[in-house]
Write a structure and sequence with these properties.
signal; C4-dicarboxylate ABC transporter substrate-binding protein; D-Maltodextrin-Binding Protein, domain 2; about 325 residues; TRAP_TAXI; alpha/beta
Length: about 325
């Protein structure tokens, strides 16, 4: 689990609100990290942003950490190597069941739900010069980038394309690196599973002409019947390339916390994120869905007691048997 900590993302020792200062901090950690994913992806931008926000407001050194994504984040948070992380519901369910490929047989029950983030759409991008405008256009043996190994995209998108009858060669890597490979002609397609707008796609749009490929209604239904995803439209204003909404499917993302972290610390960190949606949206537009009303999108993980306390005080009704 090679991890790179970017000191530039860390924010140290700036005390925030009076409420935060008044907390009994005797059992709080001196610092924390948030497991994100690769550079160029939404997890990296979103996760680094909320890590810095919490660090600034609570006056604790903290920052985002590059990881392999949701599967690895579940493992890092379960073991306590990372205090916080980000995951999608599919990888979370597999990790709890003991089928996480990072540690087969280990039930990662020490990773708890913290707060709802956003939905991850599954979308496909190709260069306009490729002539690929639909899933059916993807040629047999196409080289497709699926993101970092073990990521949500890498876990589910290959299975989805196989379900749709696509024949391909699988490639892995960080989103920014795969974007460069697509531009250089080393890949035919990138299959993204990330909150939108995906930074790597936005960057590609600036540098070249791309096609953002939607599913047909039949393809969308076929995928929804076979996988734990729901209907989703990528809004037309997400990318300059789009002139109308693009049909997709999506999976919910949640922030996670090590279940043994002090209740008051997780309560305070949850309060920072959930009480200032405008600031979260300024970090990444996907945070428009980071609102208390979406607490009920978690049907997989037990809640951290500190997070559950905050949500139940703010309109949720998390049952006791769903709290760690």
């Amino acid at each position: 689990m090679k991890r790179a900590l970017f000191a530039g993302m860390a924010v140290a020792f700036a005390f925030g609100s009076t409420a935060a200062v008044a907390q009994d901090r005797s059992d709080w950690p001196e610092s924390f990290t948030v497991g994100t994913a690769s550079q160029g992806g939404t997890y990296f931008a979103y996760g680094s942003g909320w890590a810095n926000l919490v660090a600034e407001e609570l006056g604790i050194s903290g920052g985002g950490e590059v990881t392999g994504g949701p599967m690895q984040n579940m493992a890092l948070v379960h073991t306590g190597e990372a205090a916080f992380g980000m995951t999608t519901m599919g990888p979370a369910a597999e990790s709890l069941a003991g089928t996480n490929p990072i540690a087969p047989g280990l039930q990662m029950t020490n990773a708890c739900a913290m707060f709802p983030m956003y939905q991850t759409p599954f979308s496909i991008t190709a260069l306009s010069s490729s002539g690929i405008t639909s899933v059916a256009d993807i040629p047999a043996g196409a080289k497709i980038g699926f993101g970092p190994a073990g990521s949500t995209s890498d876990t589910y998108f290959p299975r989805m394309l196989e379900e749709l009858g696509v024949d391909f060669e699988r490639r892995n890597g960080g989103w920014a690196d795969l974007g460069g490979q697509l531009q250089d002609g080393l890949l035919d397609v990138i299959a993204f599973a990330a909150g939108v707008p995906v930074p790597a796609v936005s960057q590609l749009e600036v540098q070249t002409d791309v096609n953002i490929i939607e599913f047909t209604e039949a393809e969308q239904k076929q995928i929804m019947d076979a996988f734990p995803v729901s209907e989703f439209d990528i809004a037309a204003d997400t990318y300059t390339t789009l002139t109308e909404p693009a049909r997709s499917v999506s999976m919910w993302n949640f922030a996670i916390a090590n279940c043994e972290l002090p209740e008051s610390f997780v309560y305070a960190a949850t309060d920072v994120v959930m009480s200032d949606n405008e600031r979260m949206v300024s970090i990444h537009r996907a945070a428009r869905s980071t609102v208390p009303a979406n607490w009920d999108k978690n049907k997989v993980m037990k809640w951290h007691p500190g997070a559950a306390k905050w949500f139940n005080e703010n309109g949720a009704s998390i049952p006791a048997d769903m709290i760690h």
